[in-house]
Backbone:
């Protein structure tokens, strides 16, 4: 067991866990932030996507010992992030979600995409969202919502 | 599962349900209750019983209206559409309507199936009338209360947006009337709205659960956190049915936070459970368990060997599902005018995004359960059995579930039995059983592998005159309570649905089935038998249309029975909505068509496909659907889009579960890969046939059409007919 200080959504948090514990399980089990989801544990589904220093990252394959002082941002912070809020609003407006389990990760990937490319092409959307699985296959509406959020940004 | 309601009542409720009203904390509570079975009546007056929570609608003093949803919400939208139905008849103010998922209780059982469940696309189809009646009766009592106060006749009053209006300009909010309404007698019968009077039904209404699903605040079963809760993972045998011979748990127990390691029984075989303070700890400990398994007594299945065996079986007729006309008709057709086609379909895992889980706290004489279950009352009974309790001693909370697609509707309740066996050792402590993704991919309960062999005799006009069809695959329902209803003449209806009951008019038609016993647990996978039978029918009919040099839509319309009203309407609408783009697809793109009716809903679909990186690229899809009354067109649109995407699983290069020497060869999404964003249609436009008939389901019907539509397009691009799934190479 080791003690780590990490910055989550702008707040410094201290946890004592095994160094190999993935960030995902630190968020979910130590910090009780369950918006970030477990889907596969091998970085193949994107349900656990968070921003690490602004980069969309699969938290299930990042051990806590490697997080360091990089800022961790999770879905719980999106409602107060202007772009995050815009993306969430478009998701709601276009009735994107079905079961909703993957959508935290989808939204985190979409926000990271729009932060780096405010007006993405279809190809860029497919590349950035290409690692986020949705078994309900809400992909058509995810694509629309990203484009719609992008339109909002232009104003 | 479509025929349960028409074929018998083995699972049916034998009790009638009645509405009951009561005042509740200044509001109105409308509940259902059940009378006793007829056999129990007539003697002494039954003792008053403490009923489980049984509300359907509550009017709160602040005007909020809470509607209870008797089904699991796992994406399909009942959390919104069932409240819509009730609120519409009640004339409730939709902006004040909230929903909640019902716990397990008799009153929430499917009125036709007699268990509390989601399946067979029956949620709206079976609960439409029920929710309408509750809404209309609640409204009637509110009106009666207002009319009583105003000393007017109830029929002089009208209602809108949670307000009763009287003839002389009086008005009262539902919340103000709630207490008086609770004293009104429940009307025995009530006038329901005509479709033209609907205010919500038929209108696109956004989901009630969107926002919490977008901001991370919604709690799925896996997110549950109770004081003192422990987490369990289980090491299951490498071959289905294997048993623990010996084990060494020293290394596992040495990890800080591990509480217990012990053997548990499974539905098939035995396993080792690890219970720890945290999931991650439990998983680490499981990895360090050394287990010597006894797998000597169980069949070691190999899919290659199974394939050879199935293909051999398919050459002989099985138990007859349908035999129409004269089977000698085939002999009159020359071999040049025959098609013989052999199809193969793999095992498929459902792989819902939220891994399977169940939390149980066992308190000795009671238990409390939290689970995202499609079969609440079935799972409740199984847990009670393991814990030595009566079902009513098990409080079962329905949790929001992250997908399911059939995987949470398991007749043997194996996940809940595991969870109960573990919780039994931890009296007073809640234990959450978590299946990892590896457990899920390797854990069985797959869509069964199938082989179909079809021989078709074609007449001079290019139409099929004779059709012999043999289906080989494990029975899903054998050994379950559904067998009595769904196995006829040795044929499992869930294996032959979509072929034996086809709407295509083929005069000499013979479908039979073999159901070998194989040591791989199988289960219904969204749209069940239609996943493979729809593919076979729609690719063969397309091949026939091509041979006849006819337009694929025109050919289907010609071959369809005149009675196939829904499919005809869908094809006509599809023709109209897709004609323009179908005529102008780019070079190297092709159009594929498929239509299929399942769960009483008709669907027709056109796709535009090209080949990119040796994979099908689906540029667009147009889909027409006939669900009768379209309760929530927005939900239906989402279900059509999502259902097509789900069906693409069948086409994925790694869309198969295979076994070698009894072991599943895939472990996770790297080996069993469902569709990502680039794999599904880029755009899907959905068109709904206007209907006033009773609604039919929409969750499953879109699934069967996408795979055949895509390979029908591919056939135009490559000249090849694709009869084995997955599409490993083009």
Residues:
């Amino acid at each position: 067991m080791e003690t780590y200080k990490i910055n989550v959504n702008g707040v410094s948090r201290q946890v004592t866990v095994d160094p190999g514990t993935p960030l995902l399980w630190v968020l979910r089990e130590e910090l009780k932030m369950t918006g970030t989801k477990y889907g596969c544990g091998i970085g193949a589904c994107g349900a656990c996507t968070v921003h690490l220093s602004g980069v969309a990252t699969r938290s299930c394959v990042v051990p806590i010992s490697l997080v360091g002082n990089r800022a961790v941002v999770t879905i719980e912070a999106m409602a107060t992030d202007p772009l995050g809020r815009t993306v969430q609003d478009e998701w709601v407006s276009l009735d994107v979600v079905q079961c909703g389990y993957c959508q935290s990760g989808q939204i985190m990937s979409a926000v990271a995409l729009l932060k780096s490319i405010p007006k993405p092409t279809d190809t860029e959307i497919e590349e950035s969202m290409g690692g986020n699985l949705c078994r309900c296959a809400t992909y058509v509406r995810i694509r629309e919502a990203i484009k719609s959020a992008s339109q909002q940004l232009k104003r | 599962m479509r025929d349960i309601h028409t074929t018998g009542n083995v699972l049916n409720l034998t009790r009638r349900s009645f509405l009951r009203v009561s005042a509740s904390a200044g509001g109105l509570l409308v509940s259902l209750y059940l009378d006793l079975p007829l056999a129990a009546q007539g003697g002494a007056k039954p003792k008053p019983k403490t009923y489980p929570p049984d509300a359907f609608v509550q009017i709160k003093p602040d005007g909020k209206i809470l509607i209870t949803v008797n089904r699991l919400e796992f994406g399909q939208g009942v959390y919104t559409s069932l409240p819509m139905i009730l609120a519409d008849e009640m004339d409730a103010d939709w902006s004040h309507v909230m929903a909640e998922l019902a716990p397990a209780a008799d009153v929430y059982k499917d009125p036709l199936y007699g268990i509390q469940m989601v399946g067979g696309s029956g949620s709206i189809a079976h609960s439409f009338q029920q929710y309408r009646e509750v809404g209309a009766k609640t409204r009637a009592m509110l009106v009666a209360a207002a009319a009583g106060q105003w000393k007017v006749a109830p029929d002089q009053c009208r209602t809108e947006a949670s307000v009763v209006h009287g003839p002389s300009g009086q008005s009262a909010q539902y919340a103000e009337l709630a207490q008086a309404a609770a004293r009104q007698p429940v009307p025995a019968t009530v006038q329901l709205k005509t479709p033209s009077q609907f205010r919500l039904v038929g209108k696109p209404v956004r989901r009630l659960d969107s926002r919490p699903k977008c901001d991370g605040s919604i709690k799925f079963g896996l997110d549950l956190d109770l004081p003192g809760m422990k987490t369990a993972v289980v090491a299951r045998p490498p071959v289905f049915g294997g048993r623990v011979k010996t084990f060494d748990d020293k290394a596992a127990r040495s990890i800080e936070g591990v509480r217990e390691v012990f053997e548990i029984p499974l539905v098939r075989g035995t396993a080792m459970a690890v219970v720890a303070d945290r999931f991650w700890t439990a998983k680490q400990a499981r990895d360090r368990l050394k287990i010597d398994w006894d797998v000597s007594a169980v069949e070691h299945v190999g899919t290659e060997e199974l394939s050879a065996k199935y293909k051999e079986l398919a050459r002989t007729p099985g138990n007859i599902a349908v035999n129409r006309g004269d089977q000698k008709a085939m002999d009159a057709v020359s071999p040049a005018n025959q098609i013989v086609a052999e199809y193969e379909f793999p095992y498929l895992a459902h792989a819902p995004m939220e891994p399977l889980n169940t939390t149980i706290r066992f308190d000795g004489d009671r238990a409390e359960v939290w689970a995202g279950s499609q079969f609440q009352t079935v799972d409740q009974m199984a847990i009670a059995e393991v814990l030595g309790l009566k079902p009513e001693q098990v409080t079962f909370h329905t949790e929001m579930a992250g997908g399911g697609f059939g995987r949470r509707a398991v007749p043997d309740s194996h996940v809940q039995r595991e969870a109960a066996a573990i919780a039994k050792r931890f009296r007073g402590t809640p234990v959450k059983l978590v299946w990892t993704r590896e457990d899920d991919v390797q854990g069985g309960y797959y869509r069964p592998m199938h082989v179909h062999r079809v021989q078709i005799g074609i007449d001079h006009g290019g139409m099929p005159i004779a059709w012999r069809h043999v289906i080989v695959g494990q029975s899903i329902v054998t050994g379950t309570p559904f067998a009595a209803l769904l196995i006829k003449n040795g044929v499992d209806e869930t294996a032959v649905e979509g072929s034996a009951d086809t709407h295509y008019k083929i005069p000499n038609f013979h479908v039979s089935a073999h159901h070998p016993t194989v040591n791989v647990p199988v289960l219904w996978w969204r749209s069940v038998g239609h996943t493979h039978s729809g593919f076979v029918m729609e690719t063969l009919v397309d091949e026939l249309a091509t041979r006849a040099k006819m337009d694929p839509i025109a050919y289907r319309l010609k071959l369809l029975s005149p009675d196939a009203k829904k499919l005809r309407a869908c094809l006509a609408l599809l023709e109209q909505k897709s004609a323009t783009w179908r005529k102008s697809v780019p070079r190297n793109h092709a159009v594929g068509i498929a239509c299929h009716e399942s769960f009483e809903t008709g669907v027709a679909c056109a796709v535009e496909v090209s080949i990119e990186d040796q994979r099908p690229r689906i540029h667009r899809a147009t889909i027409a659907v006939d669900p009768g009354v379209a309760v929530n067109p927005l939900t239906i649109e989402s279900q059509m889009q999502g259902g097509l995407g789900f069906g693409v699983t069948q086409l994925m290069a790694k869309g198969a579960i295979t076994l070698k020497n009894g072991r599943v060869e895939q472990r996770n999404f790297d080996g069993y890969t469902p569709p990502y964003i680039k794999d599904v249609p880029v755009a899907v436009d959905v068109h709904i046939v206007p209907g006033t008939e009773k609604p039919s389901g929409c969750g499953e019907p879109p699934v069967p059409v996408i795979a055949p539509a895509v390979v029908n397009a591919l056939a135009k691009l490559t000249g090849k007919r694709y009869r084995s799934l997955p599409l490993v190479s083009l």
Summary: The domain at 77-154 of chain A is CATH 1.10.150.120 (DNA polymerase; domain 1). The first helix of chain A runs from residue 23 to 30.
